[in-house]
Amino acid sequence: MTTAATVPTGVPLAPGSATVEFRSLRRAFGSTVALDGLDLTVHPGELLALLGPSGCGKTTALRILAGFESHDSGEVLVDGEDVTRIPAHKRDAGMVFQSYSLFPHLTALDNVSFGLKMRGVGKDERRKRAMELLELVGLPQRAAHFPHQMSGGQQQRIALARALALQPRVLLLDEPLSALDAKVRLNLREEIRRLQQELGITTLFVTHDQEEALSMADRVAVLRSGRLEQCATPSELYARPATAFVAEFVGTMSRIPAVRAGESVEVFGRRHAVDGTLPVAGDLEVLVRPENVGLSPAVDGPAVVVGASFLGAVTRLTVRLADGTTVKADLPTEEAAQLPIGGNADVTLPDRPVLVDVRSGAGQ
Amino acid sequence: MAQLTSQTALGRLRPGRAGVLLLAAIYFFVPMGASIWFSIDDYHGGITFNAYTKLLGAPGFLDALYLSLELAAATVVVLLLILVPALLAARLGSPRLRPVIEVMCSLPLVVPVVALTTGIVGVLRWGPEYFANSPFFQTFVAIQNPDLPAVLLIAYVLMALPFAYRALDGGLRGVDVVTLVEAARNCGASYPRAVFSVVLPNLRSALLSASVLTVALVLGEFTTASILGFQPFSVWINSYGKTDGQMSVAVSMISLLVVWVVLLLMSVVGNRGRKAARS
Ligand SMILES: Nc1ncnc2c1ncn2[C@@H]1O[C@H](COP(=O)(O)OP(=O)(O)O)[C@@H](O)[C@H]1O
Ligand SMILES: [Mg+2]
Q1: Are the CB atoms for B163 and B78 separated by under 8 Å?
Q2: Which of A54, A203, B86, B228 has most Cβ atoms within 10 angstroms of its Cβ?
Q3: Residues of chain B contacting A114 with CB distance shorter than 8 Å
Q4: Which of A60, A72, A223, when mutated, tests ligand 1's pocket best, judged by the most ligand atoms within 8 Å of its CB?
């Protein structure tokens, strides 16, 4: 591939990348509220990951944008224009589905050129453009193959080429990798990101896999029960989660009981400033990431090492406190070697402000 | 391709299976061979095709055959025009309708053909008198037009409904209709166009097997046609074949042959259509 947004013949593929805005979008299915006032803006040319647990409304948001689902209230704007009244086949949004969705009776080439055919593009032109797209996704040699003759990863690549064939202003991907095995998934992840950056196309990528979201996206929007919890760059999301939900959904978090001490909290006898606002009532817990927990061998330490898993350069130790709380800590593997299972340890937290939440269910 | 796979499949047969296959072949072919032999054996010695030539040249043969084929084609068309839209609408629009459709389509299975026919006979007797002075009288005449008896068509549609439904439903199970339609619409196809260019081509084999089952049923149906007094192939051939023993066997051979040829033609045409759609 040469310069951005071109394929080998130099035809620009993405004519323009749109801004997408969801405004107070609501959709309920009977008593199930799938979207509960979603507000979100996707900037032109960015890859935004919609992240959240299963059932939080990610697919519904995407399907409303694509025109497959109706909404109860709110707006969906593409480049400032409300698209919710436009029928699906005129929406100008290419979609890759979670399940394999290639047309089984058509070859890869015919699948990719299907949209061009619907638009009345001539046969030769269609073939040429479809071949270019197959080259773009690295599968020109599969042009004459039928979907059932291809692996899952190949099928999703063809589906991607098909979604790009009409040069849509927005690319929608609904968990496109979830049916693939781990290795293919990693490859395709990079491939999608590379393509998206080359084409500069505005992309909404739905996933429930936080690692996938963090590794691919320019920004990640975390959804919870149909609402936006936080939208930020991956590093910000990881380092400064806005809520306990985001903190625990993105990466690993341990909860440690804390004592209220004025405007700060006290953990293991030390005071810590609070990141964000302190809940006004209730028992408190601090949330810490494993890499921010310090452990040192100490015969009379409050924690007992109960587990260790080797992760390469670091080893993740699990310790249990006197009250039964378990805490995870990542230590350089050499240091971890000095903390055998069954041994006692001192636990320390970082000096910077900690995230605090009201204590969740007992024994957590 | 198909030949290749069947050859390798035969090559891989284990002795036990080959034995079963042989038994089945004997069960199937020996009576048929014997019948053919009987129908062409001249008791003065030698071979004669008298029975066949007489049969093919008999008055009414072509008319009866034509009526049967016409009825079969009409039944297929009416059935598919009812079933395909109904099943697609249930999948795409309201999945809750599916069990309702299933029950309705299976109902004819529990009504014996004779009962159905008796019912029809009753209605046909009662109707013209009851409606004697109303426009419905003409309706009753029209549906019994011996050139294409609509009343028989209706009966056949009912009888074939459960089988055609099973075949189509099976085909639909193998296709994710909702996703395919959405993918097609996402590619710029309007709703009807998505159905015609994506869903129907993928239902080709289901449509074909529904049609084959229906045609086989219609070509072989005797009871209703006979009781209602029409003369499609099965009825005609039965009455004509009664003239002598040799003729009666020749008659069954011919009707077997007709059904086979029709079904074979259907599957050949169906497969050619598939290739054409793909290229
Ligand atoms: N067509 C539908 N009918 C009824 N409920 C639905 C439908 N689509 C989605 N839902 C419900 O809406 C909620 C959100 O669904 P969805 O958007 O698919 O979540 P996600 O993609 O985040 O897993 C879920 O509780 C789901 O059961
Ligand atoms: Mg989903």
Answers
A1: no
A2: A203
A3: 184, 187, 189, 197
A4: A60
Which chain A residues have a beta carbon less than 8 Å from that of B202?
A: 103-105
SS3 A322: coil
Separation of A175 CA from ligand 2 center, angstroms? 7
The token pair that represents A186 in the structure block:
């990693």
- In 3D space, the residue among B270, B253, B252, B173 whose CA is nearest the CA of residue B215 turns out to be B270
User: By the 8 A CB rule, do A135 and A129 touch?
Assistant: no
Q: Residue A172: name the closest of A100, A98, A96 by CA.
A: A96
Task: Measure the CA–CA gap between A105 and B199, rounded to whole angstroms.
Answer: 10
What CATH fold (topology level) applies to the domain B33-278? MetI-like fold (1.10.3720)
Burial label for A9, CB within 10 Å (0-12, 13-18, 19+), is exposed
For tokens 């190949």, the residue is A154
Q: Is A128 helix (H, G, I), strand (E, B) or coil?
A: helix
Q: What is the pTM of this model?
A: 0.82
Closest residue in chain B to residue A108, using alpha carbons only:
B278
Query: Measured between alpha carbons, how far is B247 from B252 in angstroms, rounded to an integer?
Result: 9
3-class DSSP state of A286? strand
Burial profile B51-77: b = 16 or more Cβ within 10 angstroms, e = fewer: bbebbeeeeebeebbebbbebbebbbe
Q: Which residues of A141-175 are buried (b: 16+ CB within 10 A; e: fewer)?
A: ebbebbbeebeebbbbbbbbbbbbbbbbbbbbbbb
Is the C-beta atom of A56 inside 6 A of ligand 1?
Answer: yes
Strand partners, A260: A265
Rounded to whole angstroms, the Cα distance separating A122 from A108 reads 18
Name which of A268, A290, A292, A287 is nearest A276 in CA terms: A287
Q: Which domains does chain A have, with CATH numbers?
A: 20-239 (3.40.50.300), 252-358 (2.40.50.140)
By C-alpha distance, the chain A residue nearest B192 is A89
Task: For residue A296, give the 3-state DSSP assignment.
Answer: strand
DSSP A210-279: HHHHHHH-SEEEEEETTEEEEEE-HHHHHHS-SSHHHHHHSS--EEEEEEEETTEEEETTEEEPEESPPP
Handedness of CA B232, B238, B242, B247 (dihedral sign): positive
B222, B29 in Cβ contact below 8 A?
no
Domain boundaries in chain B?
A: 33-278
Protein residue closest via CA to atom 1 of ligand 1: A29
CA distance A85 to chain B (A): 15
Evaluate: CB of A70 within 6 angstroms of ligand 1.
no
Residues constituting chain A: 364
Mind listing the pLDDT tens digit of every residue in chain B (279 residues)?
444 444 555 556 678 888 999 999 999 899 889 888 888 888 777 888 888 888 788 788 888 888 999 999 999 999 999 999 999 999 988 888 889 999 999 988 888 888 888 888 888 777 767 777 777 777 777 777 777 788 899 999 999 999 999 999 999 998 999 999 999 999 999 999 999 999 999 998 899 899 989 998 998 888 888 888 888 888 888 887 777 777 778 878 888 888 888 888 888 887 776 655 554
DSSP state string for B25-61: HHHHHHHHHHHHHHHHB-TTSSB--HHHHHHHHSTTH
Taking CA B219 as the corner, what is the angle to CA B218 and CA B222, rounded to the nearest 5 degrees? 80
